[in-house]
Amino acid sequence: MAAAATKTKTTRKAEELVEKTMKGNDASHDASHVWRVRDLALSIAREEGLSSNSDSMEIVELAALLHDIGDYKYIRDPLEAKLVENFLDEEGVEETKKMKILKIINGMGFKDELSGQALCESLPEFGVVQDADRLDAIGAIGIARCFTFGGSRNRVLHDPEIKPRTELTKEQYMKKEEQTTINHFHEKLLKLKKLMKTEAGKRRAEKRHNFMQEFLTEFYEEWDGRA
């Protein structure tokens, strides 16, 4: 688990909260996913010129660490939806920072972009954390995570008769049982490259996107017995 050079007490506590709350998740949304997103976010933040602002870097790191706590796909208790806000209050995070962190977390999901609710794009930290999370959803890691999640939900691997849905609404997207694993590439993952907010994110997404396209070409050829 890599991290910033100097960890604050709040950062260490956030890591502990991640390990505790995400322990029962499948490997597509476990603590390792969070560590990768945190490392990507800090790297992108440096490339985007945020490293000179310690407040921005703290916002980026905490938002990245806490972004999947209370995820609707894994929530076991309605009270979990307040875990992040309660944690930030208990740690005494300054109000302005706290509100930025919560805005990033609550607005960065793909479902929020579908509904037009991703309204905090003016925050430079928002694009950094969102891009980091989306980069971990594509490329080789993204492929592995996609099939891991599909398997955990007993989702159909591929069915040529079930076509990818177009013009998805937030409500349709959240009905995961309607998807096949392969269709998820077309309904979400292949769209992420064009949705990157930072220049650093766009550069990194290019290679990962191309890798997914190559994978899908090979997958369909093997599925049809042509390879």
Q: Could you describe the 3D structure shown?
A:
This protein is mostly helical and 227 residues long. It has one domain (9-223): Hypothetical protein af1432 (Orthogonal Bundle). It is built from 11 helices and no strands. The protein has helices at residues 9-21, 31-47, 54-66, 83-90, 95-107, 110-115, 124-135, 139-152, 170-174, 181-187, 199-223. It starts with 8 loop residues before the first helix and ends with a helix. The mean pLDDT is 90.
Keywords:
Hypothetical protein af1432; HD/PDEase_dom; mainly alpha; 227 residues; HD/PDEase domain-containing protein; HD_domain
- The coarse overall form would be globular
Q: What gap, in angstroms, lies between the N and C termini? A: 39 Å
**Helix percent band:** 55-70%
Rg, nearest Å = 18 Å
